[in-house]
Specification:
172 residues; Rossmann fold; six-stranded mixed sheet; 3 helices; binds xanthosine-5'-monophosphate; binds magnesium ion
Length: 172
């Protein structure tokens, strides 16, 4: 797997701090439930909530939209549900990356059926130019060009999640 560094630990930490500060300001005095989308978001979410200065509760859901490769299967299957009631609550969904928009637009509708008071989305990365389904995240750390990225929770066939930096895979 040949790869090039895209974002260093320092760049990530700085940007996550900035986004965490904005979220903290937006939710001051409210009871926030942060829902991480497994598996890709777990490292980002851990850093994000520790950089926020408001209390929150956490839960996780798992959406499978990708097979073993780089192309979206184009449909979404929820393979793990949250375990918290979100009715009447303020919800922040945390996702690793918005690509075609398929996963998040499905997931947001799936959660909205449970009548939260509010629901916003925070994505670590946004591949804006690849959108097939209209979707805008409320908070984004970095907008990136096309190209498959790994590290900081993101994987290629389950490899490279553990890397503290973000890398872009070189085209074969
Ligand atoms: P869609 O197309 O539904 O895709 O917006 C969102 C999901 O696709 C995965 N994805 C990636 N994973 N590097 C990854 O490791 C990438 O460059 C990439 N692009 C999309 C990811 O699981 C995300 O939740
Ligand atoms: Mg994902």
């Amino acid at each position: 797997m040949r790869k090039e560094i895209l974002f260093s630990r320092e760049m990530i930490a700085k940007r996550v701090q900035e986004v965490a500060r904005r979220i903290s300001a937006d939710y001051t005095g409210r009871e926030l439930i942060v829902i991480g989308i497994l598996k890709g978001s777990f490292i980002f979410m851990a850093d994000l909530i520790r950089a926020m200065n408001i209390p929150c509760r956490v839960d996780f859901a798992r959406a499978a939209s990708y097979g073993a490769g780089q192309e979206s299967a184009g449909r979404v299957i929820m393979t793990k549900d949250i375990e918290t009631s979100i009715k009447g609550k303020d919800i922040l969904v945390v996702e690793d990356i918005v690509d075609t928009g398929t996963t998040l637009s499905y997931l947001v509708e799936w959660l909205k059926e449970r009548s939260p008071q509010s629901l916003k989305v925070c994505a670590f990365l946004d591949k804006r130019k690849r959108r097939k389904v209209a979707f805008e995240a409320d908070y984004v750390c970095f907008t990136i060009e096309d190209g498959f990225v790994v590290g900081y929770g993101l994987d290629f066939n389950e490899q490279a999640r553990f890397l503290p930096e973000v890398y872009v895979l070189e085209k074969q």
